[in-house]
Amino acid sequence: MESEQEETPLTPYMNAVYGGDLSEEEQQARFDEQNTQREELTATCMTEEGFEYIPNTASSSISFSSGEEWKPDDRDWVAQYGYGMIDFPGRDEPVDPEQTVEDPNADYVQSLSESEQTAYWEALYGPSPSEDELAEDGSYEYDWTKGGCSGMAQHEVQDADPLATEEFAALSESLNDFWNTVQDGPEFAELNSAWAACMDEAGQPGFTEQMEAQQSINDEYNAMWENVTEGPGPTPDSPEMVELGQKEIALALIDLDCREDVDFRDGSQAAQFAAEEKFVADHKTELEALKAAAEQARS
Asked: What is the pTM (predicted TM-score) of this model?
């Protein structure tokens, strides 16, 4: 029987900042307001850059999900979808034409010359990163000051988030460090070690952390696309994709067996709760100030 997901010690503070405690209607209204602000700021900026720009507010919508269609701890679900990477609920459902939103600026952009279009996109999103800015894997560190009008607008609206302000910069850094290292603790290490031993016995050696199993499928999927030099690439029904999907399901089922064998779900929740409890105790004053600032900004 699955245990209920508890509200962890950090949840009230994060809900206050990001609106997790709001109703769906309130979240939608908040999203609409922020999207309108971003688009109006973008339009003003683009006008100053010498281009026309119609604020694109029609795409302002949030997709709410009950989570009932995603069941990674249910054996029947895993036997059908694995980790939900190659196949997943709703993958083959047709897109509702009414849900597609046209860019109100498309006709204007098409009316520009090729060089003008290049200048338009650079003004909107900033220049492409140089080779010096790219890491070996093709990623790069985003800098909003180089993100054009869109980056500026996003930054301005984000300033309404108290966690993004100078006042809470130290707390923001502490939170980032916490999220990046929380699973390095001894409780998680013990769980992962027991899980890895189970996987090894089941004929799936080489993993040291539970998330590495799913990541291995993701890596193969990405490599499949990296090898595409021309054409549309693999489809859901192509032999290589079907084969990877079967491999995913087989691995996910063994992973599920091992998670159940070592009580990984409840153990990781308990470890997460304990880690967050300590973090809250160590940063109680800062977190309470953050919560108050977030609630004041929303009022």
From this structure: 0.69
